[in-house]
Every structure is written in structure tokens, then in C-alpha cells.
Amino acid sequence: MAEVFPSSLIPRENPNLRLGIKSSLNSFRQIIASLFAIYTVADTPTDVAYSEEYSNNGTTAIRLASTFCDSIKIKYANIDNISDLISDSPLFKSQIEALQVGIELFLHLGKISFIQSSRQERTGKERYAKSISFSDKMLVLDAYIAAYSKDEINHWLNSWLKGNNTESRIEKGLKNILSTFIIDCCYKIKKTDGTEIVFNIENIYKELAFGNQVLFKDGEIVGPMRVLNSYIDEGLLPDVRKNKNTFITINGEESDLKKRKSMMSISLDLVSRRLPTTDNVSIKSKPLLIKYYRNKVGNYLTALRTKPFMLLAGISGTGKSRIVRKLAQATVTEELQRADGYKGSDWKNDRWTLHSPANFELIQVKPNWHNSMDVIGYLSNIPSPHYVFTPFIEFIVKAWQHPEVPFFLCLDEMNLAPVEEYFAEFLSAIESRSLEGGEYMTDPIIKPFNSFGSATDENGKETNIGNIMINTLFPNFKASDTDSAAAKIIKHFRTKGLTLPKNLIVIGTVNMDETTFSFSRKVLDRAMSVEMNEVNYDSFLTDTTDDDLKAIVKAFEENGDADLKALLVDRHIEAKEIIEELGEDAQFAIDYLKRINALLEGTPFKLGYRAANEALIYLQSAKEFGQGDRIAALDNFTLMKILSRIEGDETKLKITDSEADKERIANAGVNIDEAKRYGDFNILTALRNIITQMLGESGNTDQESNVTEETATESGEELIFTEQEKKELQSIKKIDSMLSQLKRDHFVSFWN
Asked: Residue 299 sits in which domain range?
């Protein structure tokens, strides 16, 4: 046995507080008793497949797995029909989201997941087989309960499995123990005036100790507050009960309540925890960041916060791949870089000169890439069965092992080959992103490793291909190390395949000339598109990109309420996550897109649901980077996602006098006379008119302020640009350029 130092601290994701969910959970006695019974007969506390599926009147339901039935009946022989009692608990009846909130966030007893990762559940619908990995909290419960006699345990367990109150010694002690498990769970009350209160159990006991009744409802109850509500209904929280819309104390002396509150407070002080910045918790970015939003760096960051796939297009030599490298430098951690070989002592300055940040990979696309083998690899039998992994896959695996750091993959000259041919798996996977039980999931770009089966090698020996793949990617992994982060990743690859990690950002550099392929709308729909055609010899020696990035990084480092890495990793996926935070900005954006889509009706340029979803996420992302100006955000979004779709000759863009065209023009609210001021009446001039009506010729030109950068930073006020600092809308400038191109060449493309 070797003598070794402890392994390094394992980075963990910020907890998702799920403050806005609407799933409920009750019958906690049954849940806790069922979990305890399963735990006491399980061979190992991890990955306990406690349930199995069966058909119940044509609907899939679940019950206690047959592998546990016999052992539970033997251990608890004095409890009649114990397997049926357990199977009748909410552990088998409730949907997984409610169980995860109750068991994971609230009680901290373990992690719940589907045995088959592709499953999804809804209220009142089918239920699918689940597994649980118990936390060390079960050791506490087991040690406490084991101190009682067998008869006492059986009596308690039998009563709780039926949902009954026992008033036994076991129950009284359990309530106190369980109250220590739930102290760091967060709850939210959304008041009818629009304000919100986020709090812990500590805050309830504090007010009760002062002799107050604590209001818990002002409108709809959401999030873990629903779980707490049920828990108190069952009388499981010591000294606290409900009375209409308030929590009250019973049998609790003021001194006892103060003592309990004080002890909770100390426990919370001792918990090393960083609250998430993306789940119902506002990011309080410093106004300093606003200064940098309107330049290209701010646009890059907001776009990447919206979606981790970007196209940087422009002529060669404009710094497209350089900006990707700089973004990696801005977000790489010293720990990660030292693991990659960095030996310096001045990290603060050295990070900006790294040629190869550990979170950066440059892959040069080849003209002969006409299938995905060059990207995701392939299965080879020469000289023996093995999977040939590519730098792309190896980089993804590296990203999986450092989930809190953004990893930037740069596909250089991406359109030297048809993107849809060599990048098909990625294009599909990027659109399959979802949160499955709080876990970030995509479709796999390599199928589950366990599904590759076995093959015969050159020596006639049968070999498991999945094992070979794992050994190739993780050469230092030991099978006995079952609890490591690597073990969890390997299990994921074996059972779910190699999916995209949430911290992977893919940026393709694009040169639009006669040697390259154009992009289909399939690609454009899935990417954020940014032009980099500007060449200014007067300023290239004093390019501010580095300084802008350094200033942004510094602002985040000085702001404890915001984290640049978290913003680029923990992205919003669906607009419904942030719709409430956007407020009236959401409706403004939807109205804007509705008018544009009315104009594009019947054309190949029409927008789908994806565009609306990303527009709202882009708006929220802009706010989280310190920019609350919806005009500037929608201007940039129009440039990236709407104008990039428009391509064709005069005929394709023409608007006729047909009844259909008259209807869509009327629905879009286009002023034809105004539109014709900019050229022949067509889709571009009509679109220009809509943008002008909705966003104006320039952003917020009616606003004036004496607030300076210095005073804004000190006071916390939002920095407003002066008239001289305001810029013409970039989407308007681009349309004017495209109209000039159309007039000159009788053909137009966003990609000059």
C-alpha cells in the first residue's frame, strides 16, 4: 500500500435552489421510513436501484424492486405487507422533480435519478424506475435508530410507513435530528407587489422567538416552500405549526426558540457554501461593466451566455481566433493551468500571455472533411478493435473533468468543408440541451460506451470495446476508485454516452470567400453569428481588446456577487426560467419579433420558436453582464440572429402588390412610404422600418444624464451614455450596407 497525500479538493457545482418550481411533496413520514428501510438492506449506499416498472391499467408505474422485497421482509418480519407499504409511499408515486426537491435540497438524504436517463415525468402521468445514492445523513439516522430496541424500531417504522404519528421516543428525537438537516435549504416568498424574500429556517425561528407570527403566503406558494409547507403540516418541525397563512409556535418557550435559532445560525456560519448566481438570485454587476458592454467584447460575452456556439466571420487577419484565445485566458484558473504545466509566479500578468491556456483548443478544419469521423472519431479493427479518439473528443473529456471552468474550442476556418456533413452530431446535440432532474443533458455525440459490445482482437481474444475506450481516455483511473469525480464521468459515458458538457463553448472562425462553403439555415439557426470585418490601421497598434477583457475580469473579481466563469457555464436554456425577471422587457421583445415574423411570413427567412427563446435569454444575459438597455440588446440580437438569415437576389427579397404580401405588410405594421425612403420596397427596407419604429435610429437618444463613470461606480447608479457616446444601431448600419450590396450586385448576403 502506497503512502500518498490526499487528492485535491473536488470542485463542485453551485446548488440549484429551484425556488420557482411548482411541484409539491407530502407524507414525509412515509418517505423517510421507506428510505430508511431500503438503506438498511442495501449492499452499498450508492446507486441503489430501489424501484422497478410495471404496467398498471396500461400506465407505467413503479414499485419496490423485487431484489429488495425478500431482504426487507426478512429484516422486518413483524411488519405486515411491508413491501406494499413502501411501494405505496410518495417515493414511488410522486414525480421526480418533487422528490429531488424534497430529498435532495430539503432533507439532504441522497440524490435521486432515473435508471434510464432519457425518462421524463409529469404530474399525474407515468412513473419510471429510479435509483438513489444516499448521503452520509443516513449514517446519522441509522446510528440514532439502532440505539432503540427491535420492537420500538418496528413499531415506529410500521406507523411511519402508514403516515401515522407515534409520539414515541424515536419520533421525538428524529424531529430534532431532521431539523438540523434542513437548515441550509432556501425558500422564497413572492409577494403580490412583485418583491421577493429568500430565507432559511433560521429566519422563521428568529421571528417566532420575538413573539411574531410569520407570514408564509402572499400569492402562490412555489419552490421548496411547498415542501416546507407540507412538512410543517405533518407536525415534523419542532415547535412550529400553521395557522391559516402564518406559522406560529406551540409549546415553545421564547428562550428555547432563541436557543434553537442561535444554534442554526452557528451551523449556517460553518457551512462553506456559495449560492448560485443564476437561479432566481439576481447578479449585481457593477456599473463599471456597462462601459464595456457596447464594445465587441461585451457582445461576445453576452452571445456566449445565451448559447455556447458562435460563428466569427470576416476576412482573414482580423483577429478571430485571437479573441477566442483571449476569452480562454480571461477565464482559465491558475489551478487548471498549473496542472497543465504552468510554473510561473506572476499569474495575474502571465495569464494574458499564455499561448495555450489549458481551457483552449484550436482545431484546423480540413477541406476533405465530409463526414464526422474527423471530429468524433470512429471504431477501428486495425490492428485490433479500438476507438480512434480525436482532439475534439479529448478536449470535451477534459472539459468534463473541470465543470466550473469554461472550455473554448476554436474550429479554425470552419467553412472550408460543409459544416452539416462533418459536424452533424454536434448540431443535433446543441439543440437537445435540457435540465433533467437538475442535471445538464444533451443527446450523445458518441453513443453509450457499454453499447459497443465486444469484438475479437488479432489474437482471437474477445475484448470489451467500452472498457478499451475508458482505458484510453482515463489511463490512470483505478476501478476501485468508485467515489471519485472521474468515476461518475465514466459511468455517464458508459450509460448515457459522451454528451456535451455545459462548460463547452464552440466558436468557429469563418472566412467568406470563393474558397469556402456557405452556411445553411440549419447551422445559422443554431449559432450566434458575429461579423469581424473591421480593419482600422489607425488603431490596430492600440487595440483595446486586451484592456477591455482585463477590466471586465477585474470588475468581476472585485464584485463578490458576480462570477464571470459561472455566467459562461451556467447558462439559461429555456426562456421560461427567466420570464419573470425580464418583466415588461419580455413582452416588448415578443412584440418586436412578432412584427418581424409577420413581415417574413411565407419566406425562407421566417423565425421559429428557437429565435424567440434565444432573444429572451439574450436580453436577460445582457442584464446579467451589467447592461439593462433592451434596445442595445435587441439591436445586437437582430444583427446576430435575424439579418444573418437573409440572402438572395432581388426577386427573392421583393415585396409585390399581391393580396398575400399586402396582408403581411399590414400585419407587420410597415409604413411603406417610410420604408421606400431607403430604396426599393423589399424585405430589407421593410425590416429597416420596423427596427426604426421599435428600436429607433439609435439607442436611448432621449436620455440625458450627468452621471459619470466614477460617480456611477460609487453610487451604484446606472451609467447612461452621453449623446456623443451613443452609437447608431448596428442592425440599421448593416441593413444599409446590405441594401448597397443589393443595388450594386443584384444579390445580397449578410456575409460580405
From this structure: 286-307+544-752
